[in-house]
Each structure stands twice: as structure tokens, then as C-alpha cells.
Design brief:
The chain is an alpha/beta fold. The chain is built from 6 helices and 12 strands.
């Protein structure tokens, strides 16, 4: 088990892992595999269920530190959120989700973990949770909506600290089914550049996710 460039993320062969907190020994989130090494437990991180895991496996350069505060938009049922929670041993993840069905499952994850703040809200309406979320070190968005670039711009402009990075996961078909995936990604990049964000990299997530790309952004 070897630690990757991201502290708290480990790799064995072509599989990623994060370390389960001591107070959650033998606890799984989504039936992932747990490997024991000495006094530690490592949870397998499935790249076919987590776009962030896929991005890391593609050797993309970005940084998440253990003391970061992260705003996660589109938290769903908490698969990726739980692994970020493992990484943030001194930080907090603010998890925004607007589906009642997904939030019900996310809350079960949050009940066991001390560093996740669940927010049941539409991520487009930042004014509804601005009293809860402080300035953050990182914004991560995985929302499959046509206006996902506008959602990102609204949140990053309000909550992301100056000169910090963010990741926007883009599903091409959610932007415009008539566009080629590459053109859909370019449209989102154009929206971001118009509002002053800098595009550091655009990474196609194949073969883990079809017609998806991760856009690495700096404000």
C-alpha cells in the first residue's frame, strides 16, 4: 500500500484506497472492500462509482490537503463524500444535495462521520446556505444539469478562497445532446473563462466514465 501524491489516498496495483477513521473500524459505506494493514483499515475506492477516484487514477495534478474545508455540490448518496471525509482528517466537507431520496442515504453516512455537514438544498440558490458554509479551500461539483456551469460560477464566486482550485465534473449529454462531448466541454470552459476563472486542465474520464470530463479550475 503506497500513498499517492494526495495525502490520505493510497494505491495498490491499479486500485485506490482511503484510510477508514479509527472510530469507524469495519464500517462500510457502499459495500466496498476493506483491507487491513497493521492497525489500519483501507477502503477501496471504485473509479466506476466515483469520478474523483477515476480522475486520480488518470494521474491528474491537483491538491487536497487533510485540513481543507471543501464544498461538495451534488453529494448524492455519499460514495465520494465518504472518501473525501477519510482524507480530511482535520477538515470538513459541506455536502449539498437536493434529492430527498439521495439525502436520506447521505444522512446515514453523515450520522457516522464527524466531518460531513449535510445541506439539503438546491445548489443554484447559494443564499439559502451562505450562513452555513464558510470560505472554502476547494469546490467539487458533480451535478448533471444543463446549467451546471452557472451553478459552479455562483458557488465558487461566493465561497472559494482566492487563488484556490476547484473541480467541475461535466456530463456532456447534460449540456447538449446534439453536441460532441469535446464541444460540450469547450462550451463549459468558455462560460468559466468569461467570468474570470482559469482552466488548468480538462481530463476525459474514459474508460471509467463515458462522455464525462473533469475540468480543473483556479479562481
Amino acid at each position: 500500500m503506497k500513498e499517492t501524491k494526495i495525502k490520505g489516498v493510497y494505491k495498490q496495483k491499479n486500485q485506490l484506497f482511503t484510510k477508514n477513521p479509527l472510530y469507524l473500524k469495519r464500517k462500510k459505506v457502499y459495500n466496498e472492500k476493506i483491507i487491513k494493514r497493521d492497525d489500519s483499515e483501507y477502503r477501496s475506492w471504485n473509479p466506476h462509482r466515483s469520478k474523483l477516484s477515476a480522475l486520480i487514477l488518470k494521474n491528474t495534478e491537483f491538491e487536497i490537503k487533510p485540513d481543507f474545508n471543501i464544498l461538495y455540490l451534488g453529494a448524492a448518496t455519499g460514495t465520494t463524500v465518504s472518501h473525501i471525509s477519510d482524507i480530511l482528517v482535520e477538515g470538513t466537507v459541506f455536502a449539498v444535495e437536493n434529492s430527498a431520496v439521495s439525502m436520506k442515504k447521505l444522512l446515514k453516512v453523515c450520522e457516522k462521520r464527524k466531518n460531513i455537514i449535510p445541506i439539503f438544498e438546491d445548489a443554484f440558490h447559494t443564499d439559502r446556505y451562505q450562513a452555513i458554509v464558510p470560505l472554502v479551500d476547494f469546490v467539487y461539483q458533480d451535478i448533471s444539469q444543463r446549467n451546471q456551469s452557472q451553478i459552479f460560477i455562483e458557488n465558487a464566486s461566493r465561497f472559494l478562497k482566492e487563488n484556490m482550485k476547484a473541480i467541475l465534473m461535466v456530463k456532456a449529454r447534460s449540456i447538449d445532446v446534439s453536441l460532441k462531448p469535446k464541444d460540450a466541454y469547450e462550451r463549459v470552459c468558455s462560460d468559466l473563462k468569461k467570468t474570470g476563472f482559469k482552466i488548468k486542465n480538462v481530463v476525459n474520464l474514459a474508460p471509467y466514465e463515458r462522455d464525462h470530463a473533469a475540468i480543473i479550475i483556479k479562481n
